[in-house]
Every structure is written in structure tokens, then in C-alpha cells.
Amino acid sequence: LNRRLDGLGTTIFARMTALAAETGAINLGQGFPDTDGPEAVREAAVRALRSGHGNQYPPGPGIPELRQAVAEHQSRFHGLHWDPDSEVLVTAGATEALAAALLALLEPGDEVIAFEPYYDSYTAGIAMAGAVRVPLTLRAPDFRPDLDALRAKVTDRTRMLLLNSPHNPTGMVLSRAEAEAIAELAVERDLLVVTDEVYEHLVFDGEHVPFVSLPGMRDRTVSISSAGKTFSFTGWKVGWVTAAPHLIAAVRTTKQFLTYVSAGPFQYAVAEALRLPDAYFTGLREELRAKRDLLSAGLRDAGFTVHPSAGTYFVTTDIAALGEKDGVAFCLALPERCGVVAVPNAVFHDDEAAGRTQVRFAFCKRPEVLSEAVERLRLLT
Ligand code: PMP
Ligand code: GLN
């Protein structure tokens, strides 16, 4: 492995899911739902496969039906208007979109400011591009970004802000005022913005503000989303990028040589999914909200300090109140101790001290699974 990728052996999610499989523990580590998305969407994929739609290379930028559906979805929910031909690009999940955007837009040595704890592929993508990550640490209990600190981190070498709201793993959702302040800074210092909004439909408190909707952002923002979270098909790996034509052209160039294309039949199914009625999207959010509440209350009862999560699949806890000092050691021992898998936030930090006693639990699981996990976690005290 080359030096750029030092320390990036196997992802924490793969490690923790393997540990869950080995020990038979309940997996509240990796964020994937334990029930599939809508039957009609699955059937649409089967229909596409059977009728040979997408079984051979689809067009490089994605099938026109899906690009059109992405544009319509963004218009319906966010009032944003994109040209499906020049401003929408289909990718192999948000993961490829992120890698393609970072590889396309960064020069070696460029600085990228990102919130830490970071979603794991950000560090890898920045490293693969030969760029330098600069953390803006989100601190408990509310994980709000310190906007003065952000301003102070911008240097002449800063090229990009890499944003994520709703934020994995903390569940922080940027307020409109915070997003506006960040957008002003981006204009003032002429920064590119890559914004990961895969949890756009999973905001339980507050509102989702698409970053590109803010003044001055249209020509400098690459927005990323994915069908994984919105339709509960994380294995399909259908994501998309929306941006101004010059940015899409850049990201398309790298995407061509990473995968060229992906998931033909699933693209037809996701095009149908994006056209589901509003009630589907509201229903998904309300279901996840109930699960967030169930797990958060249970963890609190079991003695964890629970930091409120306003969005995503995740809630971050603190284990100091349980007399624990180290989240990594705690998570490695947890399956043996009580049959539950969780993820230590420390692995998403450069400033490990900031996340040392924080542990992330995923609540995108069936209520009975969450209840059983809580029963097991109560054995800790
Ligand atoms: N960004 C964030 C913040 C995530 O939590 C995830 C995990 N789903 C991804 C990107 C990757 O999404 P995908 O599975 O579509 O590649
Ligand atoms: N996004 C998921 C999480 O945060 C994991 C996806 C993956 O394993 N790459 O748990």
C-alpha cells in the first residue's frame, strides 16, 4: 500500500460487521437497514433485469430516465432546477461520487477543510488525491461547527470545504444561519464546496438546507446524494452528483476511469423510486424518527450519555458515565460482553481525544432488534 494510504487498511464498518458475524452480536455498527425498501421499487429492478434494461453498459453519465428523475426530485423537494444532460451525473453510490469529485477537483497539496469526526471515505479520498485534510472538530454535546475557528483555518492553500449535513456520525444538522455563514466564507475566499447530503430526507429536527441553494453557491458547489439511505437499498450503489456544467464535466472525467458505469438495471428502479409520492418520504422519516427515539431512550436508561441526534441513521453516545475511558477498547469488547456491535467515533477523528469516549449506534433497524439491543446493553451496569 502506498504511503498516501497509510493507516487506511480495512474500514471500521467492514471490521465491525465481521465482528458481528463472528460473534452473532446485534449489528448497530454499520449503517444499513435490516429491512429492504419499497416492494414496488424492488419489482422495478426485477422488471428492468428481465426486459434487458441496463444489462449492458448504460450511458456513461447514467441513463437519461434517472438523470431526469433526479432533476424532478430536486425540483419537487428543494426547488432546485438542474439540466439532466449537463448538470446531473449518476455514480456508483455516494462513495464513488465523493472519490471522483475529490480526484477531479484537487491538486496535490491543496487543503480541504472538513468536519471531524469524518465519514471514513473522506480521509481516503483526500489522501488519494494527494491533498491535505484540515479538521474542524465538532465537539459534544451539540456538535455545532465553530464558525470563527472555521474562518481561521482558511489559508492561501485552502481549495475546498467538504461538508456533510445531516452529519454522520453525530446527527448534527446545520442550521440555515450556519450554512449561510459558511457560504459567505466560501465566496469571500473563493472556495469550492463538496457537500454530502445522502441523509437529505432523514432530518428529524430542524430543516435540510441544500447547500447549493444558498447565495453564490451554484457555480462552486458539487452536491452528492444516493439511493442507499433514501430508499433502503444500500447494496444497489446508485448515487448522483448535481452541479453546474463545468463541475459535472470535471467529475465525469474521473468517474469514467474509476468505474465508467454501474448498476444498469438498478438505475431504472431508482428512477421510479425518486418519483414515489411525498407520503413515502415523510413515512420513511417518521419511521426513522421513532427508531431514533426508541434507541436514544433505551441507551439513556442503560446508563449512556446520549447526545441528541437531529438526523441520519445514527446517535452518538458518551460512555464515560459508564466508567469507560476508551471507545475503541469498549467497542472491541462489547460483542463478547453483551452481544452488541457499535462503532467508536475516535476512528473518525484526527483529534482522538475529542472522540475518545464517544460511541456511535445505528438505529436503522427493526424496533424489536433495537429493543433487544437495549436489553443487552443494560447488562453493562
Ligand atoms: N456519505 C455518508 C455521510 C454516508 O453515511 C455514506 C454511507 N452510506 C456514504 C456517503 C456512502 O453512500 P453510498 O452507500 O451511496 O456509497
Ligand atoms: N455509511 C455507512 C455507515 O456510516 C457505512 C457504509 C460503508 O460501510 N461504507 O455506517
Automatic annotation (TrEMBL):
InterPro entries: Aminotransferase_I/II_large, Kynurenine-oxoglutarate_AT, PyrdxlP-dep_Trfase, PyrdxlP-dep_Trfase_major, PyrdxlP-dep_Trfase_small
Keywords: Aminotransferase, Pyridoxal phosphate, Transferase
Top-level taxon: Bacteria
Cofactor(s) it depends on: pyridoxal 5'-phosphate
SUPFAM superfamilies, per the entry: PLP-dependent transferases
Domain Aminotransferase class I/classII large: 25-377
Any one GO MF annotation of this record: transaminase activity
Cell inner membrane listed as a keyword: no
Protein name: Pyridoxal phosphate-dependent aminotransferase
Organism of derivation: Streptomyces bohaiensis
Taxonomic lineage of the native organism: Bacteria, Bacillati, Actinomycetota, Actinomycetes, Kitasatosporales
